[in-house]
Design goal:
Elements lengths: L4 H23 L9 H16 L8 E4 L1 H11 L2 E3 L2 E2 H36 L2 E4 H4 L9 E5 L6 E3 L4 E5 L5 H16 L2 H14 L5 H22 L4 H18 L6 H4 L9 H12 L9 H16 E4 L22 E5 L5 E5 L2 E5 L12 E3 L1
Parallel strand pairs: 1-8, 5-7, 9-12
Antiparallel strand pairs: 2-3, 4-5, 6-7, 9-10, 10-11
């Protein structure tokens, strides 16, 4: 396994295509008729795995694309400041961006913990069974407060937050069951993992689309589990509850609206329509299109089987050149001449090179003349 500029590039290209596909499946009308949650799970797993492992494997095949990779490699290896190649500067900026976003993320978590403690002091605290006497699951804490406008769940604490307003008994049951499913599905930790992925790839715009799509998928998965055993009338009531909460979120002003994860509903009306159609048309009860699932799963192998590389023409016969292999690299060294040129010496032979910072020359010792 090896990490390189080429492996990162193919990871970004493949991930972009898969994220576009995921976004199309989740947000386009009528797709809910043939797309099931296991298809979305498979596709999401492929994307996340690809971003987590931007490397090339032993079975990866190299495809020379000189018109694209040659100019790119020439640009990235160009010494810009103090003879530091551009790719080194970009990697340094990447790492600095990760550290900056990570520090900001940790500060936000600490701030939320302080806010939560204040919220506890000014809220009515009860248990699920106090609100749902017939409930037989884990008896999670519920905070009832006037400092929030909509139902929320704080996953790290496994606490449900409700606004201090009157809910009809059936709507209250729907809201609480929805939030309970988010806790039981460990959706909070999935979201945190995706957040860390976003922090790592802060410079990669499609990763923000992926985060939004994962949020939507988590909502759809909870909808599916909550309504699976409901009657048609109960599902209609569930959909009406979604609309009711959507209206309450239009002018949300509570300090937790942005920071805390409002698992119940997405702000987009298009997303709301998608979820309601998915519920009312009983799409979750239909069988998966296994051909589609096989095609998506095959992308795992395909996305790791190729990599793009630069391909520079071999020197002419009139120009002295040497052949390099892994066995001869240990005995090689490079002379840096005063005029800025480089000569490679290997097993008694020598040849001119233009840039000692590119592979395979980058690991060969350089001796200044």
């Amino acid at each position: 396994m090896n990490f390189s500029i080429s492996s990162l590039l193919i990871t970004c290209i493949v991930s972009t295509l898969l994220i576009v596909l995921l976004n199309f499946l989740l947000t386009t009308k009528k797709n809910y008729r043939f797309v099931r949650s296991n298809v979305i799970i498979a596709l999401s797993f492929i994307i996340i795995a690809r971003l987590c492992l931007p490397i090339e494997y032993r079975f990866t095949k190299t495809i020379p694309i000189p018109f694209l990779m040659n100019p790119l490699m020439t640009f990235l290896t160009y010494p810009l400041i103090l003879d530091i190649p551009i790719y080194v500067i970009l990697i340094s900026l990447w790492i600095l961006g990760i550290l900056f976003n990570l520090v900001r993320y940790i500060r936000e978590l600490l701030y939320l913990n302080r806010m939560f403690k204040k919220l506890e002091e000014q809220s009515e605290i009860c248990k699920i069974k106090n609100l749902l006497p017939d409930y037989n699951g884990n008896n999670y804490d519920v905070l009832i407060t006037s400092y929030c406008d909509s139902p929320k769940v704080l996953g790290s604490k496994k606490v449900i937050i409700l606004p201090n307003i009157h809910f009809e008994e059936d709507k209250l049951q729907i809201i609480l069951m929805h939030e309970i499913k988010h806790i039981e599905n460990h959706d909070y930790y999935i979201k945190q993992f995706v957040n860390f992925l976003t922090i790592t790839y802060w410079w990669f715009p499609p990763v923000y689309i992926l985060r939004k799509n994962i949020d939507l998928f988590l909502e759809i998965r909870v909808d599916e589990k909550v309504v699976k055993k409901m009657s048609e009338r109960e599902r209609l009531n569930y959909a009406q509850c979604l609309i009711h909460v959507q209206k309450s979120l239009v002018n949300k002003t509570d300090p937790f609206a942005k920071e805390y994860y409002s698992f119940l509903i997405d702000d987009s009306s298009n997303v709301l329509e998608y979820r309601i159609r998915y519920i009312l048309e009983e799409s979750f009860m239909k069988k998966t299109n296994y051909l589609l699932l096989v095609v998506i799963c095959s992308l795992v192998f395909f996305s790791n089987s190729i990599i793009f590389e630069a391909s520079f023409p071999a020197p002419s016969q009139e120009t002295p050149y040497v052949t390099i292999s892994e066995d001869t690299l240990d005995n090689a060294y490079i002379i840096q001449h005063k005029d800025g040129t480089y000569t490679l010496f290997i097993d008694g032979e020598q040849g001119s090179i233009e840039d000692p910072t590119v592979s395979p020359f980058s690991e060969i010792p350089i001796i200044k003349e």
